[in-house]
């Protein structure tokens, strides 16, 4: 079974699929080792790793090449975050085959204007395109894929924009009609009430996707019990974990005036070398170096 088929089979099985964010291949490998079903190729995380806002500052090429590197490192499906699709429906039609060829098993595209603003930014610009315009982008993505198992996920930002449930439901159903295989519904409320109300009123046939960053109270068991959610994405926990750990270690080195005490709290260098693929390199050396 291919990675594309693995993700599609999970969506049709009714079993909850889990995806952890990654901003580079090392983070993706660690997520795979931890047992996540797939990788979220996060635009937010990649932007943060470059220390720039998640507002279409980085080029599509930068994101695409990182997705290629991640997909080539792990054996689980990669869900690529392509923001607003890097333009209109014509752009989307050209972009999707590039991500598919790079090894992504799915794309998530959101219905904001370009350039976007990150969803959880306080007082951010949360402007949406017309429903009909985004239907065209979804249809363009579906028509452009080479493998029918490649998954197209439409992201509804109506709740983020404060437009309410009726607008969110209307958009989700319209995007399903345009061919989306799943609908991601996003919320920035600190409790799950807004999301739970959306799920309760969802009349669509395709599964929903959740990103519970703002409402971490919902467990995977809670989400699975809802019966309408196919994927849960942990959208930014790799970069937050990395930033927190580096900040703590760097501060301790400065406070201690050296690395004597902090060193034993860190992964051994040999563990990092293992993660770099040392075992495979040794096999190659044994086979080909004469």
TrEMBL record:
Q: Which CDD domains match?
A: ICL_PEPM (cd00377)
Q: Which domain of life is it from?
A: Bacteria
Task: Show the Pfam families listed in the entry.
Answer: PEP_mutase
**InterPro entries in alphabetical order:** ICL/PEPM, PPH, Pyrv/PenolPyrv_kinase-like_dom, Pyrv_kinase-like_dom_sf
Q: Into which family does the record put it?
A: Belongs to the isocitrate lyase/PEP mutase superfamily. PEP mutase family.
Q: What is this protein called?
A: Phosphoenolpyruvate phosphomutase
Q: Which gene encodes it?
A: pepM
